[in-house]
């Protein structure tokens, strides 16, 4: 039997953060071109300066920060140490942290991933983590249970905006349902009865247009919808109501370059994030 969470569930904490700070998730994506545009070296020193600046600028004012784990892992243990400090410092300043790791495995390996990101005491303990369901959503059960036990969340890849994703996500099973529709249906069941919404979200690209409707994949899962694709990938705030329909109030848009390109100045980053949050709120209220 699952233990009661020791703190308020992630879904409730996310709703409160979005209401107080605006519906914006800013990605922390220190890829080489951004480091260069900030005048930083593509090394651990540049990584640390970049990351600390973003956390200092935004952690006390945006709802969510989302570090992309791969850009830290590429520097080995020293890069992961930067990620550990960033997660702790961002959460300490009041932002919720979604670690974008897209983990997915089975059995004890999935349980180990869950422990790394979703158990208190772990150096990478985050408010939520992204995961891949394509070994079967049931294989993610250790992550779902660990998240529930610790008041954390999980965001499951459902309808991503990259063209290659359609090969799997749009495929139909024997029952005629698209794979993505089946993932969303199972998340809806996990979130049943939760208020103001559940802690188990889906990743749904903001660039998809009417794809969810054509696939028969209702996006109302009583949980958050993490929506990448605003800005550099081609989607705009005004596209969100068309893509998400009645589920728009549950959307957490994720913006990375649209904010980060305004660095390295702290005030410029803050101004860019504020502008993004205000514009997004206009279309998601």
What secondary-structure arrangement, pairings included, does this model have?
Layout: H1 10-21, E1 25-28, H2 32-37, H3 44-58, E2 64-67, H4 69-73, H5 76-92, E3 96-103, H6 107-118, E4 128-131, H7 141-150, E5 153-159, H8 166-169, H9 179-190, E6 200-204, H10 211-215, E7 225-227, H11 240-244, E8 251-255, H12 257-260, H13 266-284
Parallel strand pairs: 1-2, 1-8, 2-3, 3-4, 4-5, 5-6, 6-7, 7-8
Commentary on this structure:
- Keywords: Decarboxylase, Lyase, Pyrimidine biosynthesis.
- Its EC number is 4.1.1.23.
- Pathway: Pyrimidine metabolism; UMP biosynthesis via de novo pathway; UMP from orotate: step 2/2.
- Helix content is 44%, strand content 14%.
- The N and C termini lie far apart (38 Å).
- The chain is built from 13 helices and eight strands.
- The N terminus is likely disordered.
- It has an eight-stranded parallel β-barrel with strand order 1-2-3-4-5-6-7-8, surrounded by seven helices.
- It has a single domain, classed as Aldolase class I (TIM Barrel, Alpha-Beta Barrel).
- With 285 residues, it is of the alpha/beta class.
- Helix 6 runs parallel beside helix 7.
- The relative contact order is 0.15.
- Strand 7, helix 11 and strand 8 form a beta-alpha-beta unit.
CATH architecture classification name: Alpha-Beta Barrel
Q: How would you sum up the global shape?
A: globular
* Beta strands, count: 8
Helices and strands, in order, run as HEHHEHHEHEHEHHEHEHEHH
Strand fraction equals: 5-15%
Pathway: Pyrimidine metabolism; UMP biosynthesis via de novo pathway; UMP from orotate: step 2/2
GO molecular function, one term: orotidine-5'-phosphate decarboxylase activity
Family: Belongs to the OMP decarboxylase family. Type 2 subfamily.
Organism: Streptomyces hazeniae
